[in-house]
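Example 3.
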Amino acid sequence: AQSVTQLDSQVPVFEEAPVELRCNYSSSVSVYLFWYVQYPNQGLQLLLKYLSGSTLVKSINGFEAEFNKSQTSFHLRKPSVHISDTAEYFCAVPSTHYGGSQGNLIFGKGTKLSVKP
Amino acid sequence: GAVVSQHPSRVICKSGTSVKIECRSLDFQATTMFWYRQFPKQSLMLMATSNEGSKATYEQGVEKDKFLINHASLTLSTLTVTSAHPEDSSFYICSARRGQVNQPQHFGDGTRLSIL
């Protein structure tokens, strides 16, 4: 069965500092990986995704994640964070339960990023 | 971009009341919709998967008669919490996906349900 591990539940950083949010997955099948961001009292927004091709994927707001098959990781990085990046970030992988036909997501437990001035 | 609207955003009601939550995909046809539940400081837990025109598939431990799901069209799915009790208080989030399983899900803004 698949699983997603986000080792850090909370990551406090100062504004303009770099940040890395870690995500490791386990899956025995082809891997699609997603990062979602959740702002307080809101639903989730897709931040970026890896489906195939280049292992480095980037979002429009400066985040990037690299798919590393050998390390089974998909860490999220940003070289310089802003106050507005304060949110909870979830790594996710599609489930293969039900033979993968439904494609529901398995989420990590989330990492709360707190950016301080 | 794909937009999913979830309504209402917040519900406060008495124990024993039934509550209906709507999830609409506004600018695309959603072949599959998902309903999640999120407890405080925890991740999302899938409750059920809903395909248009067919019965929802519930995850283990989720009561079908308690959480009624209807997916009557390609743009609308509803979750009805029947005879809600305080332990049903939670944050419920829907998502919609168009196309194949490798496509991302697009989430609504969630519904905060508080049962008194």
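The mean pLDDT of chain B is 90. The first strand of chain B starts at residue 4 and ends at 7.
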